[in-house]
Amino acid sequence: MSSEVAARRDAKKLVRSPSGLRMVPEHRAFGSPFGLEEPPWVPDKECPRCMQCDAKFDFLTRKHHCRRCGKCFCDKCCGQKVALPRMCFVDPVRQCIACALVSRKEAEFYDKQLRVLQGGATFLVTFGNAGKSETMVCRLSSNQRFLLLDGDSHHEVEIAHISTVQTFAEGPPPAGGNTRATGMSLQYSTPGSEGVTQLKLTAGEDASASRRQSVAWLAAMHKAAKLLYESRDQ
Q1: Where in the chain is the domain with CATH 2.30.29.160?
Q2: Are 84 and 68 spatial neighbours (Cβ–Cβ below 8 Å)?
Q3: CATH 3.30.70.100 fits 120-171+181-233, yes or no
Q4: Per-residue pLDDT tens digits for 183-195
Q5: What is the pTM assigned to this prediction?
């Protein structure tokens, strides 16, 4: 990929919407696959009362719209300002109690797990039914649109074209505790070709720092898959 093409798909612009300032991709087609579209606001005339506590709106009880769901609430039910990176807002925005809770849970993905994915990890990688595996570093691109796999060869998998994600895990360790992911199978389509391709990632078997990094990457990718499915269902 040329540097000119890469710069074009990573370019962003600052826009002002009714909900606040947003830093969005210059070209809509290059947006993050984890992103959410801004919801339409419920018209003022259709919500004379708070949609949470049923308080009647008047001169003293003002009406506010949640930036995540678009519904109408009073200040008590929609007074929190919480970061909403999935909609590309520059600053924290007003959200209702339920949406604020979801956004705070997602913050862990953007603050921690996204960095793990972009930092990359080493796996034994198998494409399709090939019997031979290749040691490759797998990481998420800076624009969150591609899985980049580098070893003796180079491959790119577009996140938006991944249809199935399955995580393989081992049983709990002898001392107890949670199960740990050991590998992952991805199915994805390639533009211009029929059918789907399967990609299998397997973490190393030793107890090294590299394996721990791979296990953390798999856990982060599992969370990313959930966000991806939610974006598609919007």
Answers
A1: 120-171+181-233
A2: yes
A3: no
A4: 999 999 987 778 8
A5: 0.80
